[in-house]
Write a structure and sequence with these properties.
By secondary structure, the protein is α+β, with helices and mostly antiparallel strands. About 40% of the residues lie in helices and about 20% in strands. It starts with a helix and ends with a helix.
Amino acid sequence: MKEDKNKKTNKRSFYFQDYDHYIINKIKNEKLIINQDRVYLLFFVFFCLIFIFATKIFFISLKNLESKNYVKNYPVFQTIRNDILDRNGDPIARNVLVYHAGIKPNLIKDKKKFLIKIKLLYPELDYLTFENNLKKNKYFYLKKNISQDERNRLWSLGEKGLLFETTQTRIYPHKNLFSHVVGQIDLDNNGISGVEKYFDKNLKNAEGKSLNLSLDINLQYLIREELLQSISDFSAKGAASVLMDAKTGEILSLISLPDYNLNKRQEIKDKNFTNKITKGVFELGSIFKTFTIALAMENGLFSPNTVIKNIPDEIKCSKYTITEHDEMPGNLSLKQILVRSSNIGTIKVARKIGESKLRTFLEDLNLLNTIDFELDEIGSPLKFSWNKCKLETVSYGHGITTTPLQAVAAYASISSGNLVSPTLVKNKSFNLEKVRIVDSKTSKQINSILREVVTNNNGTASLAEVDGYYVGGKTGTANKNINGKYTNKKLTSFISVFPTIDPKYILLVLLDEPKAAPQLVYNYRGKQISGIKRNESGWNSAYVAGKIIEKIGPILAINKNDFYDNYVVKKSD
């Protein structure tokens, strides 16, 4: 019995012991679950706090950060318009980062104090307008397109109401220097004139490259300085020039004065700001005589030394009387007609050529039609009828118009023998076969005669001579036709070809309404003279061309020794 009792006791003990273990484990599991729930809850609360905090930061960032100055930045600066460079890679036009300084008046605590600070920074500011804008409590711009330095000065004021927006603007570091070539863009980044307009799509192409022009900044600067001086010396209304590579047609310099600052987007309405080289359509006078003489030699009608006899002092043509500008001998060789610039002699040569051939030749030289060029500002020669007397007047440059750019290209074509098309793009490929204009023999003969226009005692361009540069050329003086009537106002020009041994460059200088300059001391055929009251091209445009060539010659690597070594010595061999 005792043994059974012990068995019962042991069983009961075992049962309670097992139950105790069960209860203990259950409690432990419940505690574990509770602890896990607490952890999960804490994680949930923590996550919610982070989410709320992040959301708050996000929305604060969208409210212009009213607690501090705000700068709206592009994630990555990517230009919205490509650069325009000169032939050496120097910038002519470029997009840069700038800032718009805005003001939020409701964030300005002490407006009177703030007003004083701004007035100290910008004394030129319209004080009353600025004060009224502050009172309106509406966002307004203090100043647009400010630099980083100017932004920093404003930032240092420590005003919460000063806000800054980052943007881009187009700058032209050389201001006036390329105004008539480069042109401008509008506020929407669209080209509205010049190469900015002509190459608009390329310049706005995000994957495009910089535009390399054929222009040279150094040449442009030096020539412009001389043209500005010429306006002063001759009291001229304006001036212009173009320098072209005689072989490729690349424009190395193109200037028209007056010009304007490209960084100031004012509207230019005065037609005097027209690009005289490309848009201006003028009677250029005696420079056309070169074309007549060249055609006569090309057709084998005359040699340079052929003498035209019995040249009268004047010729009656219809109701008009054509005279010489100076006294001329009765007998002149073909060469002398061009050297002395004889009107009547040129007419006699033209009559021998005939209207049809002269007309065709001028058309082949692209003098009578509108040409293709990388500017929208292109003039069109005035149409005319080849009626009675037109052959005569056209032969010496009267009653016929063209642009100076076309005239320069025509001289390049004759001096090289092949048709030359002008371009503003460096290393441009026209993909055209060479078009022969005149035989190489004719080119050499013409270049030689143009050299004598400068060196001969009877030549009209002695003032263009620069020692060592072998300058040749032709003068042109014309009375301006205004509203269909010829006036006493002059337009003078000189087209120079250098070096005439092997022409590399064509330079045109044009003066608009110059006056005589008796105050100038001229170096005329080895003598120092002054008091000259003559107002022809030989006394102004040719003079200016000589000064320009003297300055730009070293840049073009033209010097006396170079040509002596490369041409004169070889020629003698």
